[in-house]
Amino acid sequence: MKQFLLLVFISPLLATAQVKRTTSPSSKNNVVNPKRTVVNKTKTAIKGSVDDGFSISGTIDGLTDGTPIKLLNGNNGAEEQTAIYKNGTFSFKGKVNQPDFKAIAVNGQPPYLTLFIDNSAVQVKGSILSLENATVTGSASHNDFMGFVVATKKYEDLFNGKGRFNVGFMDSAANDIEQFIKKHTGSPILPLAIYRHYQITGDYVKLEALFNGLPLNLQTTPIGNYLGLQVAQNKEIPYGKPLGNFTQADTSGVEISLASFKGKYVLVDFWASWCGPCRAENPNVVNTFEKFKDKNFTVLGVSLDRDKQAWINAIATDKLTWTQVSDLKYWGNAVAQQFGIQSIPQNFLLDKEGNLVGKNLRGAALEYRLSKVIGQ
C-alpha cells in the first residue's frame, strides 16, 4: 500500500506494516483480514440525495492545458478518474455512499490536495506551487475535516511519527481530540478523530467506548471499519487478561518462555530482519527500552525470520540488546500463529502479572502507554 496519503489512509499503522499475503492479487489493497467479518455492513445514506452525486471542479494556477489531473481514492491511493486540464479548468463527477476521502494529484504526482467530500458541488482554487493549500468550498464534510486539521495542527508531527514527545504534550493532544469529538457529534470526520486519539494513547478501552458512540453509518466508513476491526480483535485477546504462555529458542538455542518474565513489564515484539517497517520502528523501541529498562521493563523479541544469520545480523545492526526468540519458520512462526499475527511490526505490552495492558503500540504511543502503566 502506498504511503503518500498519510492523513487519509484507513490506518497509518497498517500503511507502514508488512502484511502476510493471504489474499488474491485482485484484493491486494484490502487492509483487513478477509476471514474476519465487520461488525456492521449496513449502509446509511448521507444527508441530501445520494443519487445527485458529487462534482469537483476548479482552477490551478500555473498549469498548462493538456495536463492530466487524477482523482485518487483516499483510503488506498488507487486512481479513480483522470481529467485533462482544459481552458483553465478541470472537473470530476461521481458518487459516494458516505462522506469519504479523495485526493487530487497533478500528473498523479505530489503534492496532493486532500479532500473530504460528500455528494455536493465542490470548488477548488489553488496554485501548482502549493496545491496542498488550495481553497476548497462547497462540501460541509470538508469544512469539518479542515476544522479538525486546524484544531490539531500543533500535533501534526506527533501524528506523522516525527520526533519524540513528552507525556504532557500527548495528554494535551488526546484531550483536545476528545473535546473535538464531544463537540462534533454526528460529524463524518469523527472516525478519523477517534483513530487519532487511539494512535496517540493506544487505549483500546477508550477506543471501544468512542467507537460504540458512533452512529451506525459512521461505523461502516473505511476508517470506521478499521476501528471496528480493532475493537473486535481486542475481544479475542482482551485487556486485563493474561497473554497465553509460549516457549521458543533464542539465538543460542536456549528455550525461553514468556512465563519466565513474570514480575516484569514486558513488550512482546513481533518483527523480522526482512521487514522494512519493523527495522524502521526498531530505533523507537530501542530508545523506549533505554528509558524504561531500569524501571522493571524489558522487551522479548519474536522474530518471523527464516534465515538465522540474517536475524542475528539485524539484531546486532539495530542494537537490540534484549532477549530474542524464533523458530525460523517465517509466517509459520508458532507464536505468531498462536496469536493470529497477520502483519508486523506488532506487539503486546504486559504488566508484571502478565496481563495485557497495551497492544500494537508504535511510535510515540509506546512510550506514552508505558509512562501511564509504569510512571515517568
Task: Tell me the name of the CATH class of the largest domain.
Answer: Alpha Beta
- Topology order in helix (H) and strand (E) letters: HEEEEEEEEEHHHHHHHEEEHEHEHEEEH
Let me know the largest β-sheet.
Answer: 5 strands, mixed
Question: What's the CATH H-level homologous superfamily of the largest domain?
Answer: Glutaredoxin
Residue share in helices?
A: 25-40%
In terms of structural class, how would the helical and strand content be classed? Answer: alpha+beta
User: Can you tell me the CATH topology of the largest domain?
Assistant: Glutaredoxin
Q: Outline, from the CA principal axes? A: elongated
User: Into which percentage range does the β-strand content fall?
Assistant: 15-25%
The CATH architecture of the largest domain can be given as 3-Layer(aba) Sandwich
Number of strands: 17
User: What is the averaged pLDDT score?
Assistant: 86
Number of domains: 3
Numbering strands along the chain, what is their spatial order in the largest sheet?
A: 14-13-12-16-17
- Terminal Cα span: 36 Å
Give the number of helices.
12
Using the CA coordinates, give the radius of gyration.
Answer: 22 Å
Low-confidence stretches: 1-14, 23-50
